[in-house]
């Protein structure tokens, strides 16, 4: 549907608090709803005054992000409550997500079992599966955009954020815009070719790459990883090779690559036997390798 904007003054309904972050096109501030006292985050975005201006975001880009978030109401996707528009600014009132990045949370842990990793993967896959069921693709699913609602809890709650590059896709529609963050391969080789149709059912791409990169070195050192874990990583990475040249002819779509729904019933996530469950509960991630990866990714441009 069409993005819905309110014309009221945001300050009439919300108390504007401290700056939580800032960027080229605006800032994020802590806000509190006057009627209920509920805390939220306010994204204050500068909008271009005209087509020739370079200051601010295009209104169409903001409309697209609002449309996506208004269409994707899911427990593992950042919630959008309100959108306010003035002449030079749009304010998005979104869920206050204060737990930080998932990868930073993991890097601070002494150890991470496969069982812990599965808890996070299930939440991510459910969010991605829901997006795909609504015919949306994120196109920039990377560690920075996988957050925790609150990290000081026994079982942290995953939230996917930043839908600025997300697109609505109809089945088998041709999509030629190249987007995403290259080092995390936010798009698959299928999309890098720029001339192949994008099938929503094949879009479980950046989930496996985030997982595979985050698990880099899993087999190094004295660590045991279950066969089911490696099986899922392999199936999720179908169609990608270390020697792939983005400028070359695209690799064909692999029919072996799994959908989010298929991943959720894979034996690693949903064990078929007691032995499989025992194997994964005894396995753990190589935290030394993970911390090295997490430190390196922050220096990449």
UniProtKB/TrEMBL annotation:
One of its GO terms (biological process) is signal transduction. ATP binds at residue 43. Coiled coil: none annotated. SUPFAM superfamilies: Protein kinase-like (PK-like). One of its GO terms (molecular function) is myosin light chain kinase activity. It comes from Lepisosteus oculatus (Spotted gar). This is Si:dkey-240h12.4. Keywords: ATP-binding, Kinase, Nucleotide-binding, Serine/threonine-protein kinase, Transferase. One of its GO terms (cellular component) is cytoplasm. The keyword Transmembrane helix does not apply. Belongs to the protein kinase superfamily. It comes from the Eukaryota. InterPro entries: Kinase-like_dom_sf, Prot_kinase_dom, Protein_kinase_ATP_BS, Ser/Thr_kinase_AS. Residues 14-269 form the Protein kinase domain. Signal peptide: none annotated.
